[in-house]
Design a protein that fits this description.
Structural class: alpha/beta
Bound molecules: 1,3-dihydroxyacetonephosphate
Radius of gyration: 18 Å
Largest sheet: 7 strands, parallel
Number of helices: 9
Shape: globular
Order of helices and strands: HEHHEHEEHEHEHEHH
Low-confidence stretches: none
Distance between the termini: 33 Å
């Protein structure tokens, strides 16, 4: 329903919608490198590395300066506010590094409005229960966005995939997860929304890629781009390969490139696991009561 007194000019609407389309262009998704200082501390601790400003800067630089193979894969990068002001070794501010590789820069909701209603996978609930709750939450979200006259074409949705709870004993196939996810989205998300960029939410790197691939292959009409905004599932193997040591820079970047390429294919429904996945590829990245 158009607002009687539009808050945005046609030019502003075009700008927002163009940015949203650039981020989710075919083969592209988002690198979520927006861990707060507290969250990155836990990641660094997991590889026995001290949480210093220089280690955080070096690690983010490692991701942001991976070679040009990532350029067609990464449409945008979400940074933590403080990271926005850090610089690469050559003196360029991180936002400039990202832009030079064709990416859009943002901080939490700074790229275009990204709406992020996450249902945590904590519990032993099954797939149907997650689908039910996801539909309820998304329906409420889009009612609220409508009440506030939000310009949906200029937004992205960052939801959880519909998956069983982490402690659920019943196993579901990637195709079942994909069907439940796309069904929940079709019931609740207007086609005007430009793209849906899933968070990985504790899935392993491989699971997140295979599920994204299955979602894109799901034989239902899907009016939005369906891609990734992965934090843990793009970084886990890279983080492990780095191990806090400067000399591991290239090996770590290689792991990151591998995941970026895998997810770029997955968001087009073209991913086939190669069997040459990284050190953390099949490791669960679930963290109980995880906070970003
Ligand atoms: P995870 O992929 O680790 O769930 O993070 C997603 C994200 O977009 C954080 O902003």
């Amino acid at each position: 329903m158009p607002y009687q007194y539009p808050a945005l000019t046609p030019e502003q609407k075009k700008e927002l919608s163009d940015i949203a389309h650039r981020i989710v262009a075919p083969g592209k998704g988002i690198l979520a490198a927006d861990e707060s200082t507290g969250s990155i501390a836990k990641r660094l601790q997991s590889i026995g590395t001290e949480n210093t400003e220089e280690n955080r800067r070096f690690y983010r630089q490692l991701l942001l300066t991976a070679d040009d193979r990532v350029n067609p894969c990464i449409g945008g990068v979400i940074l933590f506010h403080k990271t926005l002001y850090q610089k690469a070794d050559d003196g360029r501010p991180f936002p400039q590094v990202i832009k030079s590789k064709g990416g859009v820069v943002g901080i939490k909701n700074g790229i275009v409005p990204i709406v992020e209603p996450e249902i945590l996978p904590v519990g032993d609930h099954d797939l149907k229960r997650c689908q039910y709750v996801t539909e309820k939450v998304l329906a409420a979200v889009y009612k609220a966005l409508s009440d506030h006259h939000i310009y949906l074409e200029g937004t992205l949705l960052k939801p959880n995939m519909v998956t069983p709870g982490h402690a659920c004993t019943q196993k579901f196939s990637h195709e079942e997860i994909a069907m439940a996810t796309v069904t929940a989205l079709r019931c609740t998300v207007p086609p005007a929304v430009t793209g849906i960029t899933f968070l990985s939410g504790g899935q392993s790197e491989e699971e997140a890629s295979i599920n994204l691939n299955a979602i894109n292959k799901c034989p239902l009409l899907k009016p939005w781009a369906l891609t990734f905004s992965y934090g843990r599932a793009l970084q886990a193997s890279a983080l492990k390969a780095w191990g806090g040591k400067k000399e591991n820079l290239k090996a770590a970047q290689e792991e990151y490139v591998k995941r970026a390429l895998a997810n770029s294919l997955a968001c087009q429904g073209k991913y086939t696991p190669s069997g040459h996945a990284g050190a953390a590829a099949s490791e669960s990245l679930f963290i109980s009561n995880h906070a970003y």
